Amino acid sequence: MPEGHSVHRIARQFDRNYVGRRVMASSPQGRFVEGASLIDGRAAASVRAVGKQMFLEFEGDLWLRVHLGMYGAWDFAGEILVDPTIGSANGRMGQTNQRGTDLEGDPVFDAAGENSLTSIGAPRRTRVHVRMSEQTTGLADEDDQWPPPVVGQVRLRLMTDITCADLRGPTACQIQDPDEVAATIAKLGPDPLVDDVAEGEERFVAAVRKKATPIGLLLMDQAVVSGIGNVYRAEMLYRANLDPHTPGRDVPEELVRGLWRDWVRLLSIGVETGQMMTMDDLDPDAYRRAMAHRDDRHWVYHRAGLPCRVCGTEIVLEEMGARKLYWCPVCQR
């Protein structure tokens, strides 16, 4: 499932390429014809991401709400202007194409497909024709077909005269009015990139400390905190040396605060790099390997049966909340 960093990157891409432009909307799949007709021909006015959900505003007080869920993804084609705020102070851009991440030199190839300019969401291979703008890495052949052909089950296609975005496989895709948007967001826990960080910390601490629910479930509860998914859950619990089965109310307050502050940091890194990078203080070679390969950028996630990187104990895999949980029974006790 795409986690919070991906959705914030998607929102920034829409802000850069759609906001202020008139949009043609259609539903090639046929499952969102009525909704597409309501926004067809309207200009996009603003966009925001909260946790794993994105809200794209159109003139006339209409909002498109999208929750990608387990299998959803946005595929972009046409001229793609990269958001200049996604990158580090040394000029590296976190937004990349399928070829990988540019780290002051040759591209780093990511076989997992987590970091993509042309497809953001569930990793997938897709036929997308991309004509890159001057702000990106190159130009495609002049004979690329425009508009791009519809490939597969496209729930919603949003087009300007130069950019196309195809939505596939979302859990939710609906039109809302401002009151419905507010009601949806009110049900979500704090998001460090949306809410005041200090206020968000207090909300998170209060929500966790009053519940007997295991902390491993609370971190995945979008009403407690927004944006954390299966990867970040496992990694944050390991980084905190915290047993995932500990009831929330039994987790020391300072440790709960530490979880929130770690999420603030990891989410920012994820938005900048496009990767769920959870290992710190890597040397340049190790960092390059980590950016290229998922298995080199995590402490415990996807490492069932392998030795813990710290203590050597075999990493445990179990099911919690109908999702796979990876953890170290020695470091996290």
Superfamily (CATH H level) name of the largest domain: MutM-like, N-terminal
How many β-strand stretches? 13
The helix-strand sequence is HEHEEEEEEEEEEHHHHHHEE
List low-pLDDT spans.
87-119, 122-142
Classified by CATH, the class of the largest domain is Alpha Beta
CATH fold node name of the largest domain: N-terminal domain of MutM-like DNA repair proteins
Given the structure, what is the number of helices? 8
Largest sheet report: 5 strands, antiparallel
- β content, as a range? 15-25%
Mean pLDDT: 85
Shape descriptor reads globular
Note the gap between the termini. 28 Å
Helix content: 25-40%
What is the number of domains?
Answer: 2
Q: How large, in whole angstroms, is the Cα Rg? A: 20 Å
How would you portray this structure in words?
By secondary structure, the protein is α+β, with helices and mostly antiparallel strands. The chain has two domains: 4-184, N-terminal domain of MutM-like DNA repair proteins (Alpha-Beta Barrel); 189-327, Helicase, Ruva Protein, domain 3 (Orthogonal Bundle), CATH 1.10.8. 26% of the residues lie in helices and 18% in strands. It has eight helices and 13 strands. It has helices at residues 4-17, 33-39, 178-186, 197-209, 215-218, 230-239, 253-273, 284-292; strands at residues 24-26, 44-50, 53-58, 62-67, 73-78, 101-102, 107-108, 119-121, 156-159, 163-168, 172-176, 316-320, 323-327. A five-stranded antiparallel beta sheet has the order 1-9-10-5-8. A four-stranded antiparallel beta sheet has the order 2-3-4-11, with helices on both faces. The longest helix is centred in the last third of the chain and has 21 residues, at 253-273. Residues 87-119 and 122-142 have low confidence and may be disordered.
